[in-house]
Amino acid sequence: MSTSADSDKIKLRLHYWDCRGRAQAFRYMLEDIAYTHKNLDYKEDFEACETISNTWGERRTDHTISGPFRSLPVLHWNDTHTFGQTLTIAHILARKFNLYGKTTSTYNDPILLEGYINGIVTCAYTDVITNILQAIWATPDIEDMHSPGYFQIAMARDNLESLNKILKQSSTSFYYNQTEPTIADYFAFEAYLMTRNMHRKLLPTNCEALEKLEQIMKERPALANYFQNNRLFKRITAAPHEEEYLQKLSKIK
Ligand SMILES: N[C@@H](CCC(=O)N[C@@H](CS)C(=O)NCC(=O)O)C(=O)O
Question: GST N-terminal domain: from which residue to which, for each copy (predicted)?
């Protein structure tokens, strides 16, 4: 039996590391969804990044913790379903809570609109966020294009440029002429913020549309609360060297 996302009680439990990592884009989605859907009981419980080098080895063998793929994030839906894989979790949320936008005169086929939106999500997640996470683990010298790990930051920059260009073509501040954010906007928002938080130099020269997106996303009541209450983790990955590495990068002008 399917449940209505607008009226039936829905219990969601997210399990992820206490860092931004892969989950941050859909954490923003969940904040907004929980703000508007009072039937939603949503909580996140965290796996401490510190456990990755000691107790996680054992914890990951327990499927009630590490889900079907022995990795995090994991989303528990109503104590009956357990999902793994970042994009799958985000797509389920978008499907259930109407974050695939509305058809417009230009995008008048819902399936094709979903295809456009999914393109942005995949690009932001696979080609920007994942590359930035890998780059932080690889600690490249961001001023030396021959440094191992430089490829990841070059890829992230190139794809952010495409994300900015596509957003600029929209008649609104959101992708594909939408008046409310879709899953695409949450992912592009985090791809842009995460890259900038690694280092401003990694951004493409022109980020005007993404800057505007950041501004409008941060004005949304649930997200404004989230940022004002300092709920965004400073830590981006579970890499033990991250703080020291980002500190070193911050000295580069
Ligand atoms: N393809 C998965 C990858 C998940 C993944 O690699 N998660 C990492 C943390 S960011 C993890 O849990 N690593 C520990 C492990 O695999 O044991 C996704 O996109 O969610």
Answer: 10-101
The two counts, helices (H) then strands (E), for the chain are: 11, 4
User: With a 6 A CB cut-off, is 86 part of the ligand 1 pocket?
Assistant: yes
Name residue, tokens 């994942």. 130
Which residues, other chains included, contact 123 with Cβ-Cβ below 8 Å and sequence gap of 6+? 159, 162, 163
CA angle (152 as vertex; 146, 156 as ends), nearest 5: 125
- Write down all domains in the chain, each with its CATH number in brackets: 12-96 (3.40.30.10), 110-229 (1.20.1050.10)
> How do residues 138-196 score in pLDDT, each as one tens digit?
999 999 999 988 999 999 999 999 999 999 999 999 999 999 999 999 999 999 999 99
Q: Whose CA is nearest to atom 18 of ligand 1?
A: 85
Question: Does the reported pTM lie above 0.85?
Answer: yes
